[in-house]
């Protein structure tokens, strides 16, 4: 899941080297915290949060295959 999220995030931003993903696992949930450079935060979130929501849907589908729940948090 982490590699999948990292690939998507790096494709969206202008500076792929600034993408940092931390992962925290609690019970049956995996919390991914994506940190990007300040100019790229808007690209990850998108208009009205649509891009972030789309990433969450894709991440949830990948997590469901593994029997887990995934949560995405975008940090600046």
Explain what the structure shows:
With about 80 residues, the protein is an alpha+beta fold. The protein has a single domain, classed as GMP Synthetase, Chain A, domain 3 (2-Layer Sandwich). Helix content is about 40%, strand content about 30%. The chain has helices spanning about 1-10, 40-45, 50-65, and strands at about 20-25, 30-35, 70-75. It has a 3-stranded mixed sheet. Strand 1 (about 20-25) and strand 2 (about 30-35) form a beta hairpin. The longest helix has 16 residues, at about 50-65. The protein is globular and about 35 Å long. The two termini are about 20 Å apart.
Estimate the global geometry from the Cα principal axes. globular
- The topology string of helices and strands comes to HEEHHE
Proportion in helices: 40-55%
What percent of residues are in strands?
25-35%
- Overall mean pLDDT stands at 94
Broad CATH class: Alpha Beta
CATH homologous superfamily title: K homology (KH) domain
Rg on CA atoms, Å = 12 Å
Give start-end ranges of low-pLDDT stretches.
Answer: none
Look up the CATH topology. Answer: GMP Synthetase, Chain A, domain 3
Summarize this entry quickly.
With 76 residues, the chain is an alpha+beta fold. It contains three helices and three strands; from the N terminus they run H-E-E-H-H-E.
List keywords for this structure.
GMP Synthetase, Chain A, domain 3, 28% strand, alpha+beta, 76 residues
């Amino acid at each position: 899941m982490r590699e999948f999220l990292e690939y998507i995030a790096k494709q969206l931003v202008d500076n792929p080297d600034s993408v940092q993903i931390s992962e925290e696992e609690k019970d049956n949930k995996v919390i991914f915290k994506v940190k990007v450079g300040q100019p790229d935060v808007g690209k990850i979130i998108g208009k009205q949060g649509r891009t972030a929501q789309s990433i969450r849907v894709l991440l949830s589908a990948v997590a469901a295959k593994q029997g887990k729940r995934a949560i995405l948090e975008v940090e600046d």
